[in-house]
């Protein structure tokens, strides 16, 4: 099936999954006069992320995804990098279907640090995920467009003393462009601009009126050092509903630094031309 049809079917299924309202749940509080609630946005929180992305070729069709993310956030006295918020370890085995299509399945261990100075909860909590991903690359003149569908099954816990682990599903769709600025294509020595947008939806017993977990809008500038190494940096604005109250939205400003590395562990005679599987 062509990749654009797969993407269309996925988005249709996702829409149908969320148009049916939750049944058997208490209705949220509403204004007795207007019968509506007004959306409220929290103050912007400022963050800094340092992310490494490894795509390691291990056979003709298989590659190992090895990612580590260090995520910092502001404190009252220090913007962006005042304290560590999360450490991600994301790994998976990917399968290369062809030069423009790949899939992956793996797990995540995320370490969440308690960043609330008024909290009496634990300082650190682990979070566990199983994830699978479907990525499609499409040439566009001298640029590349990427569609990425990622589904995560997530076990997480808040920092309250009586809180227990809850299970949620996350449904993520990302669209990204990579446009070379100083070269005819995406090749060594090329500077590129990468606008990107991602929508993250969630479902679960605790998700009553807050299916929109996050909307992320990114702008990134990158430099391709060689076919195995790329560096990039950019800025992201994101917003999304809080789990407890769908009328309240979080907001974040995030500076991000990325390191992409792609070693090839195969013997030289077994190597194939490069494929478009970076995210």
Label the structural class: mainly beta
What's the tally of helices? 1
Tell me which CATH architecture applies here. Answer: Beta Barrel
Beta-strand percentage?
A: over 45%
* Helical proportion, percent range: under 10%
Order of helices and strands: HEEEEEEEEEEEE
Mean pLDDT: 89
Q: Give a short account of the largest sheet.
A: 11 strands, mixed, barrel
Protein name: DUF2490 domain-containing protein
Signal peptide: 1-24
InterPro entries: DUF2490
Keywords: Signal
Write up what this structure looks like.
Keywords: Signal. It comes from Leeuwenhoekiella nanhaiensis. InterPro entries: DUF2490. This is DUF2490 domain-containing protein. With 279 residues, this protein is mainly beta. It has one domain: Porin (Beta Barrel), CATH 2.40.160. It is built from 1 helix and 12 strands, in the order H-E-E-E-E-E-E-E-E-E-E-E-E. The protein has an 11-stranded mixed β-barrel with strand order 2-3-4-5-6-7-8-9-10-11-12.
What distinguishing features does this structure have?
12 strands, signal, single chain, mainly beta, 6% helix, eleven-stranded mixed beta barrel, Porin, 279 residues, 1 helix
Concise summary:
Residues 1-24 form the signal peptide. The chain has 279 residues and is mainly β.
What's the SSE blueprint?
Layout: H1 3-19, E1 40-41, E2 45-57, E3 62-73, E4 83-98, E5 101-113, E6 124-140, E7 143-156, E8 166-180, E9 191-203, E10 212-226, E11 229-241, E12 248-261
Parallel strand pairs: 1-12, 2-12
Antiparallel strand pairs: 2-3, 3-4, 4-5, 5-6, 6-7, 7-8, 8-9, 9-10, 10-11, 11-12
């Amino acid at each position: 099936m062509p990749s654009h049809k797969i993407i269309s079917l996925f988005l249709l299924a996702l829409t149908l999954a969320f148009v049916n309202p939750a049944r058997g749940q208490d209705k949220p509080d509403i204004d007795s006069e207007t019968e509506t609630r007004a959306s409220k946005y929290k103050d912007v929180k400022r963050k800094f992320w340092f992310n490494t992305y490894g795509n390691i070729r291990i056979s003709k069709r298989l590659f190992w995804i090895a990612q580590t993310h260090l995520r910092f956030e502001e404190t009252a006295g220090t913007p962006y990098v005042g304290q560590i918020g999360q450490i991600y370890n994301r790994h998976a085995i990917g399968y290369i279907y062809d030069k423009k299509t790949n899939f992956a399945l793996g797990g995540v261990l995320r370490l969440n640090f308690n960043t609330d100075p008024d909290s009496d909860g634990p300082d650190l909590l682990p979070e566990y995920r199983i994830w699978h991903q479907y990525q499609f690359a499409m040439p566009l003149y001298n640029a590349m467009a990427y569609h990425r569908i990622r589904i995560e099954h997530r076990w997480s816990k808040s920092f309250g003393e009586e809180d227990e682990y809850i299970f949620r599903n996350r449904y993520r769709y990302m669209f990204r462009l990579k446009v070379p600025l100083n070269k005819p294509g995406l090749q060594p020595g090329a500077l590129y601009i990468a606008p990107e947008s991602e929508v993250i939806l969630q479902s679960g017993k605790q998700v009553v009126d807050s299916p929109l977990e996050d909307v992320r809008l990114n702008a990134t500038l990158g430099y391709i050092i060689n076919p195995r190494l790329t560096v990039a940096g950019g800025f992201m604005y994101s917003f999304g509903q809080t789990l407890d109250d769908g009328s309240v939205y979080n907001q974040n400003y995030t500076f991000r630094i990325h390191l992409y590395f792609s070693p090839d562990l195969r013997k030289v005679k077994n190597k194939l031309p490069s494929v478009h599987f970076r995210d």
